[in-house]
Design a protein that fits this description.
CATH class of the domain at 71-197: Alpha Beta
Helix content: 25-40%
Largest sheet: 4 strands, antiparallel
Strand content: 5-15%
Distance between the termini: 33 Å
Order of helices and strands: HHEHHHEEEHEHEH
Low-confidence stretches: none
Structural class: alpha+beta
CATH superfamily of the domain at 71-197: NADH Oxidase
Protein name: Nitroreductase
Shape: globular
Number of strands: 6
Pfam families: Nitroreductase
InterPro entries: Nitroreductase, Nitroreductase-like, Nitroreductase/BluB
Mean pLDDT: 96
Keywords: Flavoprotein, FMN, Oxidoreductase
CATH topology of the domain at 71-197: NADH Oxidase
GO molecular function: oxidoreductase activity
Amino acid sequence: MTRPHTHPFIPFTPPRLPIEEGLDRGRAFHRLLDARRSVRWFSPDPVPAEVIELAVLAANTAPSGAHQQPWRFVATRNPDLKRRIRAAAEEEERRFYHERELPEWHAALAHLETDATKEFLEVAPWLVVAFAQKQQDGRKTYYTNESVGIACGFFIAALHSMGLATLTHTPNPMTFLTDLLGREGERPYILFPIGYPADDCEVPDLRRKPLGEALTFADGLA
């Protein structure tokens, strides 16, 4: 069947997997991602730039509104820049923890035992900031937040698949990242410290939402 098009289209014919092979892949993928945790204690051991490149290539495969791909990942391992990012982030975090009246949000975070100290921003060998582009070449982008969020999810999964750890750090506001990284006209979305977990790394004892709370079949047939 040939459909009429006014723009270039190409055939898409991926191999159709036998259902059992597909299910085996799905189970393996779940096991891989189920071992992922957000990390706040990193090893300073170096990580090659190719790791970051491969993770961004994976992020670039994410779907986006009108295929505008409204993201830019900015990576640094410069010690002085990491120090300045940490100082600015901690300034905002001190306001959040000690000056802003947000009792419900503070209570929600209590079990993670986080505070205004963000040492990991200097210890992790890489800092990568995902920026959202509300405009490209003077034109508005669409579904920007959703698109960047999906790309960041792919980015995290790719890092984990290579044995790396990260954290979705979002100090509020994050405009200092726009200034420090020279990204005028772009909005910082997530700050990712990236590296190997420290040998003495610990994470909160958490349980993920069970399938029955995450999935509802609404057709009455399953």
